[in-house]
Amino acid sequence: MVIGDVQGKGLGAVRTAASILAAFRESAPVAARLETVGLRMSCALTRHNVGDRFVTAVLAELSDDGTISLLNYGHPAPLVLPAPGGITWAEPDRPGMPLGLDVLGHCRPGRHDRALITGDRVLFHTDGLDEARDPAGHFYPLSTRAGLLRDDTLATGLELLRKDVQRHTTATSPVDDSALLLLEYAGHPRPLTQRQQHPAYSASGPGCEKCAVTSCPIPTELRPHGPHVWPPGQ
């Protein structure tokens, strides 16, 4: 999954978001690594970017054993609500540059890996939530209000949080859009039947993922090396 925030507004921001999402949807089902998905998104943004926009984002992948892996490109860290209680932040191991700026500094994204247990919840959000202010200019205290997300249902938890944010702000407060995504880990999935499993992949040679671009904008040192996989016939 991915959550992101495009710099600016208007049609330019819409086009930027569309190119990023298209690259994600194209690469996520077939890429062997989460880093490759991020690279393809960065490549798409670099090739199609108009106006030098950048995008903050978090990429996430959940394994069958409950391990969640996160790549952070300058985005607010997700909030984790462990089932036994309390909260924690899925902070990356190092700062990550936003997509569109990462290639300039040859910067790799921050990474965070953790094991989830049944009932753990994770809130992905954009900075419009963190930066919601009250009349005195105080930011919304998400850490102390996160308990609202422990409602029996995910939808109700998000509704309670939204209403609480609205009470915190006023008509004169700075306004920014915010996106919220609340997930709950339901435990180990049932084994897939052979028909349900992903089709077999064939290995290709080492190097960057195949692309129609002859002059790649991604610096060589940031391209993935080693074997990767592609669906048969592609």
List how many beta strands DSSP finds: 10
How far apart the termini lie comes to 23 Å
Roughly how many Å is the radius of gyration? 19 Å
Question: Into which percent range does the helicity of residues fall?
Answer: 10-25%
Q: What structural category characterises the helix and strand content?
A: alpha+beta
Instruction: Please give the largest β-sheet.
Output: 4 strands, antiparallel
H/E element string? EHHEEEEEEHHHEEE
Low-confidence spans: 194-207, 225-234
- Average of the residue pLDDT scores: 80
| Global outline | globular
Instruction: List the quaternary state of the chains.
Output: single chain
Percent strand = 15-25%
With helices defined by DSSP (H or I, 4 residues minimum), what is the helix count?
A: 5
Strand order of the largest sheet: 1-2-3-6
Structure description:
- This protein is an alpha+beta fold.
- Helices cover 24% and strands 19% of the residues.
- The protein is built from 5 helices and 10 strands, in the order E-H-H-E-E-E-E-E-E-H-H-H-E-E-E.
- It has helices at 11-27, 34-48, 127-130, 142-145, 154-168, and strands at residues 2-6, 55-62, 67-73, 79-81, 88-89, 110-115, 121-125, 180-184, 202-203, 229-230.
- Strands 1-2-3-6 form a 4-stranded antiparallel sheet, with helices on one face.
- Helix 1 runs antiparallel to helix 2 (34-48).
- It is globular and about 45 Å long.
- The relative contact order is 0.16.
- Mean pLDDT is 80; it is low at 194-207 and 225-234.
